[in-house]
């Protein structure tokens, strides 16, 4: 039924557990995965007069290195299970939009992601990227609610 899963990761313990579950699921249905991470954008501080080009470059380099680490975790887990895995990182201050765009651009037929289970005031203030993906997307979403975190 599903052949290509998009697996967003933010590096949290729950996200790492979800990635492992996604790899197991992909193996069980003979699907491939694309691991995905949305890096924060520097846009808010980009025009600050005290922000030097070196500082901007350092921020970008650190964000990419962090994304590489997160995506390497998923790729290594997939390789250990002989599941084909590509990785994608983008800069976006709106991760849900980037997730949906990546799923469409990569022809994914399922998004497999975590839910932190934020409720009440915290849920209202912080918001849920998973909820936004569910609300705005047309691609099926499998939400993993693990016991981690």
From TrEMBL:
Record-given protein name: Universal stress protein
Q: Which family does the similarity line name? A: Belongs to the universal stress protein A family.
- What InterPro entries does the record point to? Rossmann-like_a/b/a_fold, Universal_stress_UspA, UspA
Write down the Pfam families for this protein, in alphabetical order: Usp
Native species of this protein? Simplicispira suum
Cite the UspA domain residue spans from the record.
Answer: 1-144
